[in-house]
Amino acid sequence: MKKLLLSMLFCLCIVNAKAQSDTISITYSNEAIEEVFRRIENLTPYKFYFHQKWTEDKKISGSFTNKPIDFIVEEILKTTNSNYYITKDKKIILTGNLIVYNALPEGFNDKKSSDNKTKNTDDISDVPVFFNEKKSNNSTQIETVRVGKASKTSNRKVFNLSGKVIDFATGNTLSNVSLRVVNTNEGVTTNNNGFYSLELPLGEHIIDITSLGFQKITKRVIIYNDGSLDFELFEDLEELDEVLIEADIDENTRETITGLTKLDVKNIKTIPLVLGERDVLKVATTLPGISKAGEGSSGYNVRGGKEDQNLILLDGGVIYNPSHFFGLFSALNPFSIGEVNIYKGNIPAEFGGRLSSVFDLKTKKANKTKVTGEASVGPVTSNISLELPVVKEKSSLLVGGRGAYSNWILKLLDDKDISKSSASFYDFIAKYDHEINQNNNLSVTGYYSKDNFSISSDSLFSYENRLVSLKWDTKINKKNTGSVQLTNSNYAFNILYDGEAINDFDLGYNLNETELKLKVKYLHNKDLSFDYGLAGKIYNINPGEKKPAGSSSIVSPIVLPKEKALESAAFISAKYNVTEDFAINAGLRYVNYSFLGDIAQRTYLQGEPKSAATVKDTLYFGNNETVKTYGGPEARISGRYFITPDVSVKASYSNMYQFIHTLSNNTTASPIDTWKLSDLNIEPQKSQQYSLGLFTNFSDNLYEVSLEGYYKTTNNVLDYKVGAELLLNTTLETEVLQGKGKSYGLEFLLKKSKGNLNGWIGYTYSKSSIKLDSPFPEEVVNKGQYFPANFDKPHDFSLVSNYKITKRFSASMNFVYQTGRPVTYPVGSYYQNGQEIVVYSDRNKFRIPDYYRLDLSFNVEGNHKVNKLAHSFWNVSVYNVLGRNNPYSVFFVSEGGEIKAKQASVFSIPIPTITYNLKF
């Protein structure tokens, strides 16, 4: 290969570089361009001069008979970005992106601008691109990249630059990376698959590429035509050590959607949590608007919503029970999670089926270049995650597993019944990611978790989650990207009673759903983009099956009829930057729900309460026959306006439908709660939510402050009658009530993201109440007035802080205070026929004692040598340092003729733990 400096091209003093009339015949098949050039040199007197990178190692095929040399060269270079120039002395010089001009276009000198060489050339189609290599002092520090192939015949003024942003260390693409064209209003962020697309005019542009946790890079890009350009980012370790949550430091003010919380999964390892287990969902509860009903509750309450009103997604598939070990641990492997977005205000139109929130969790893409992994060993659990390249730089596999050895810890618990119990759990996850080509990506995720526990010596409980997700992402064209996703989720629990042989039984429950979603993103321009698509979901529920266990059991079998439903939706949303300060995000989702046979449904006398005595008729529906249809439009709209460059105000409105409900008469969510579909007698829940907030950053984005209020109303909230029997009940509609709910609150967040001392303060004032009224006395609760919901806790305060003592040592603190949740107390008693009858207060009239807890931890990083086999991390923490006996529940027993109150606590003493983490 011969090299020739480009400067030689401009001093050739050639009057005419017209292609020669020489003709040749040549055939080549799947050969490198360089080899074809060599063959032409052997056949002709022509010699090629080029830089090897301009041929891009491409393989080409072709066959020509008596064709001019310039025609053949033109065809060879069609798949490259290189032009060429033929001299009179039979030299063929490749010029890269450039075209060699013999003369400037007519009128060029009159229109050329000294400041912007492409500024005044819109009317000239063949003007060359000029830029000054020495126009700035730091120009040598900025790499210059040429994109596209210059053309004399093109009349276009704007060209498309697209590509992806890659993590240099792992080879994975990076989402939400900001690309900004300096000194313009042009900019874009990469999508979920790390791809971007920019419309840029001909000529020179300086582009800044930034992402939290990575070093900023700047490139000078010379645009000649449409083309692609990938960027590689290097991890910025110092920044990662300091920032705790959220992606972009000023995104809280810029983001249009209200009530969006993003967690930086990489940096929650220092927060002290129960038993030293890293847990993204537990960290979420320290942020405003997200809480749990109790220390051992398995559900989450978001902005005054019930536990069943949260849609928890893992790679698009639903996780119905996200908890292990009585709600103390998340059921999600913390080493496998790459991104967490929690929508608690204006939920994007692509999501539906829940009223309060969407927890959108995505597993990370495994390293495509080398084997890496993480592992941890703690007092209760051990965890491992491996990232394995399958085809280097093309495909990878993530596998993770976690198990518990927790029986010893149960003996420390305050509740004597629980201290005699046993519990264990495990979960597995695997994700295969394959980059088919630059425009197509395929990913497959599989997840399974199982819990086994025994509260008493004669019963064994178990529950499990299973999920499979298949997703294909594609770049349709310059302005459109799309995805097709198929998911299947399964949740099941089982109760095996092994007591007296004649009463032994085996009880099971199963819920299965399958969803297909098609989504397209259309980028109209930098200010306007659309998301639209279709979604369809099929529910299949086995509400319960009880059968005798063992040959001696006389338990009568019970099998409840299966339930089936189809939920389908069409959605569209638009994000529009009306001005530089004002932006809106508006969406519409139309949802249709059909409850399907094969099933029997009862109808009841009009004007009478639902009971066995008021059954009017029983209707029978065949397989897939429509029993009842619900649905309608759901509006999602939010807006953001910058009052000043650092202060924005946001407002939103949304209405939602929810067609599936939990059935429980426990105070908090339980692993054996059942899910019930809306049918002929149970209507779907509906909600409307309004929110308004003020957001600002100050001190060069060192501090973030937000204040957001909301008001939400709900219809058809499902509750229960006093003494209701919900499990294995064939007439559930006679045991439940549907009423109204309302909630409102104010959320405050102060966060410091940088410096040796960092963390956040979160405070929420909220009220959540329910109204169960009816013309029939047996369906009225608390005289038909609003009363506090089980999870109503007006004051919720969290303080999370981390202090970096040195680069290796840090200390962390987590303090939580919450108002005690509501409870129903006995207020008196009387005797009737010699039997004492207890009189209870109105439902949820009283409260258990307030909850507060202080956790401390000390963190030790391994040495920071770059070339070492593995990096270690020790976490020594004490959970509940103050030994606060926080009540989990309050109950009442009769002792010596008196009714006495008792309280159960999960942890009533300090719990020290030490966890060793290894990353390699």
Described by strand count, sense and barrel closure, the largest sheet is:
22 strands, antiparallel, barrel
CATH class of the largest domain: Mainly Beta
Which bin fits the share of residues in helices? under 10%
The total count of helices amounts to 8
CATH architecture of the largest domain: Beta Barrel
Q: CA-to-CA gap between the ends?
A: 42 Å
Helix-strand category = mainly beta
How many structurally independent domains?
3
Mean pLDDT: 83
Instruction: Give the overall shape.
Output: elongated
Please tally the β strands and state the result: 57
Low-confidence parts: 1-20, 112-126, 135-140, 237-247
In CATH, what is the homologous superfamily of the largest domain? TonB-dependent receptor, beta-barrel domain
The fraction of residues assigned to DSSP E strands is over 45%
Q: Which topology of the largest domain does CATH recognise?
A: Maltoporin, Chain A
As a whole number of angstroms, the C-alpha radius of gyration is 33 Å
Question: Please, could you describe this protein's structure?
Answer:
The protein is mainly beta and 920 residues long. The chain has 3 domains: 6-96, Phage tail protein beta-alpha-beta fold (3-Layer(bab) Sandwich), CATH 3.55.50.30; 108-235, Immunoglobulin-like; 251-919, Beta Barrel (Maltoporin, Chain A). 5% of the residues lie in helices and 52% in strands. It has 8 helices and 57 strands. The strands form 13 sheets. It has a 22-stranded antiparallel barrel. The protein has a 5-stranded mixed β-sheet with strand order 6-12-11-8-9, with no helix packed on it. A 5-stranded mixed β-sheet has the order 15-22-23-18-19, with no helix packed on it. Strand 50 and strand 51 form a beta hairpin. The chain is elongated and about 120 Å long. The two termini are 42 Å apart.
